What does this fold into?
Amino acid sequence: MWYFLAVILIVIVSVLLILIVLVQNPKGGGLASGFSGAGQFGGVAQTNKFLEKTTWTLALVILGLSLVASISIPRQITDRQPDMTEIINSTDFNQAPVNPVMNPIEDDVQ
It folds into this structure.
């Protein structure tokens, strides 16, 4: 359940981050330039600071949610797989290897 919640939140925060980045324009010609009037609250400098802080905050939120999602990935409980020592111990090394493709003794006789 936590995995799906984290994935949904990652998608929402990603869309918000995309919108915030699109609003920014380092040359002052983006949507932030609409707040350049002297009578506006905060002015351009405050708007740019807010947008930059919001960008970093959303990026860190995505990082944290990604960690939560990776930790809470639903895993299926499967039968225990044999480890290498069990495979080696169960193998009979006294059997001669069989090569069905080519038998050099029979090829020389014909």
The radius of gyration is 31 Å. The CA atoms of residues 21 and 93 lie 64 Å apart. The chain has a mean pLDDT of 76. Residues 2-25+42-71 form one domain.
